[in-house]
Automatic annotation (TrEMBL):
The lineage of its organism: Bacteria, Pseudomonadati, Pseudomonadota, Alphaproteobacteria, Rhodobacterales. This is FkbM family methyltransferase. It comes from Sedimentitalea xiamensis. Residues 10-174 form the Methyltransferase FkbM domain. GO terms for biological process: methylation. SUPFAM superfamilies: S-adenosyl-L-methionine-dependent methyltransferases. InterPro entries: FkbM_mtfrase, SAM-dependent_MTases_sf.
Length: 274
């Protein structure tokens, strides 16, 4: 299967805030989004890039449990980024005080189909609210995985995060980064495009943020060091995380603002081959 160093997969594109960064960096992008309303926003926002072929929109959900090419998808009208195929995520959202759920049927494919259609990308970002691991298993099955990969980390089970790390190691990844996602919105990065041109970019809300060589070199650690870092993260999750009552979570948010660092926030696991 061919690998393309000018290609990124944005799996869980939402309204395209990460896609915008990847396009500005000069990459071709395959953006995966299942919710029709969000897809339409991306079509309007990136009409020129779609017309030029720089962006391809895959209007599907990623799932290993599709029935006749479709799956049930749960939209949260209050928080559009909480759309999910995972019923447990719906229960979590209800605990968070948002029980507005609309169930729809959407087209669905397995993650391996993305690689068959488009090849292997330089970087693959995965944030699909509970279905992330189906993409990880597909990457493990590749002979040559993407050079860079990121996945939203589980917030409830430390062992689940360690399993993700070991699957990434099985896929061939040797360096890992534990990246706090809260706080990227409206921050600015000075970077370069893939063509070597200077780029100053302000991130928008609800983004995955920098990836690959844009992450500080000290962020990249061994698997064992990443596991130790997640032990610290999960201490904060136990104190202020998703399983705590709303008041406790709000106290964590206030304490985080006082120390100018999210408490507990949420994390992505990044991985690199070299």
């Amino acid at each position: 299967m061919q690998t393309y160093d000018d290609l990124i997969f944005d799996v869980g594109a939402h309204i395209g805030n990460d896609t915008d960064f990847y396009l500005r960096k000069g990459y071709r992008v395959v953006a995966v989004e299942a919710v029709p309303g969000l897809v339409q926003q991306c079509k309007t926002r990136f009409a020129n890039e779609i017309a030029s072929g720089q962006l391809i929109l895959e209007e599907v959900a990623i799932s290993d449990a599709a029935e006749k090419g479709e799956i049930s998808f749960f939209i949260n009208p209050e928080y559009s980024e909480w759309g999910t195929t995972d019923k447990e995520r719906v229960k979590r959202n209800t605990r968070f005080g948002s029980d507005q759920v609309e169930k729809i049927r959407v087209p669905a494919i397995e993650a391996t189909e993305l690689f068959r259609r488009h090849g292997v990308p330089h970087y693959m970002k995965v944030d699909i609210e509970g279905a992330d691991r189906s993409c990880l298993h597909a990457v493990v099955a590749l002979d040559t995985p993407p050079r860079f990969f990121s996945i939203e980390s589980d917030k409830l089970e430390y062992d689940a995060v360690c399993e993700d790390l070991r699957l990434l190691q099985k896929a061939g990844y040797r360096r890992f980064a534990v990246v706090q996602q809260a706080g990227y919105g409206f921050s600015t990065i000075n970077t370069r495009t893939r063509h070597g041109e200077d780029l100053s970019y302000q991130f928008q809300p609800s983004v995955s943020g920098p990836f690959g060589d844009d992450l500080p070199s000290e962020k990249w650690v061994t698997l064992e060091e990443a596991e130790r870092e997640y032990r610290r993260v999960f201490r904060e999750y136990r104190w202020f995380g998703d399983n705590q009552p709303r008041l406790i979570r709000q106290i964590g948010i206030v304490l985080g603002r006082l120390r100018n660092a999210a408490l507990p926030g949420w994390y992505d696991t990044h991985a690199r081959l070299d």
